[in-house]
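Re: duplicated header lines in exported structure tokens

Our pipeline writes sequence and tokens for each protein into one text file. With two proteins the header for the second block appears twice in some exports. Here is an export where it did not happen, for reference. First protein block:
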Amino acid sequence: MRPKKTRWVKCEPGERCFRPQCKPLNKLEGVTMTLDEFEAIRLSYLEGLEQEETAKLMKVHRSTISRILDSANKKIADALVNIKAIRIEGGRCQIIEKRKR
């Protein structure tokens, strides 16, 4: 299997976790979303970019963005439908440094 290419992300990798309040912590399951999935969701849906533009910013092929978005959407749907927490961490990512003026 070919190694995954590094994806470039702008979001900070600090701890990000979202959990439903309607379920006790000891009974709560979770899904893990990678930083590249989170960034693809942010760019595509929040920023409204096309997959081609998102791919250029993350320095991967458009078909890779399509697969990343599909995976992220399934995880989000699983968490919403099955009342699970979402933790965002990991992935083969390089953080884009903010340029100083």
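Second protein block, exported in the same file:
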Amino acid sequence: MTSYRLLLNPEPEGGYTVTVPALSGCVTYGDTIDEAISMAKEAIELYIESLVAHHEPIPDE
């Protein structure tokens, strides 16, 4: 399985927005760092599933 770099950005109202630079548009949110990372893992899985379903290449980091 490919690993992807995550960028966690603290939000002024609390929680963290997570982006995955290698996967354009892959963005999620969590109330805590642990939740944000967990949500990012799920978002990456769904993003990859969509790429496979549409016969698109899977980006490397």
